[in-house]
Specification:
7 helices; transmembrane transporter activity; Rossmann fold; four-stranded antiparallel beta sheet; ABC transporter; alpha/beta; transport; single chain; globular; MacB-like_ATP-bd
Length: 226
Amino acid sequence: MSDALVLEGLEKGYNRGKPSEVLVLRGASLQVAAGEVVALVAPSGAGKSTLLHIAGLLDTPDSGRVLHGGREMTGLGDKARTEARRAEVGFIYQFHHLLPEFSALENVVIPQLANGVPKAEAEARGMDLLGRVGVAARSGHRPAALSGGEQQRVAFCRALANAPKLLLADEPTGNLDPGTSEQVFAALMELVRATGMAALIATHNLELAARMDRVVRLDQGRVVGG
């Protein structure tokens, strides 16, 4: 398997050079292979969101390298980084962030339209994804009419709408009760396995983490384990 994501020696701090300086990442390195699901476990404030944002090209490191599929991403300008992120990366957060004025299907279709996919094709893929996670029957409902678990499953479909090679998730079941969390996690794993993408999933849930291919920890700014 080739590495879909490589992070090498990432350093990241805030308020650099000031008395209030905080070093979040201190030489963090990680590889995630295509088709692999890796759990990232860390306490709140340890820097896992920063690591995910750098991996997903939403932020840049102070030093170190980020590679997607062997391609160097670290030195890209804002426009090139945005284009690469749109084409290659899917994000899932603890809160679904669905567009409230649009239906479940429309929320999955819109990212595809932004990437130039014809509407009929985008709708067909949207319905296929919603069907895979058991919410096709709710495709015409707006987020407010969906349960928390349904909203998060729609968010998964939206993140996968453009067939990204890398999925990054930050506590994707952290806002759900245990029963719903189990259903949503199963749906997420089904989608990831079906597409063969690489996935890096930050979670506090050690039981869910243990069911992924590998578990790594963020400890004092470095990635350990796995």
